[in-house]
Amino acid sequence: MITLDDFATYPDFPVPGILFYDISPILADPSKFATACAALMPAEPVDIVVGVDARGFIFAPVVAQRLDVGMSMVRKKGKMPGELLESSTEIEYGASDLVLSPAGIERKRVLVIDDVLATGGTASAVAEMLGRAGAADVQFGFLLELEGLGGREALAGHGVHSVVRVPPID
Question: Whole-angstrom Cα distance, residue 57 to residue 72?
Answer without folding.
Answer: 9
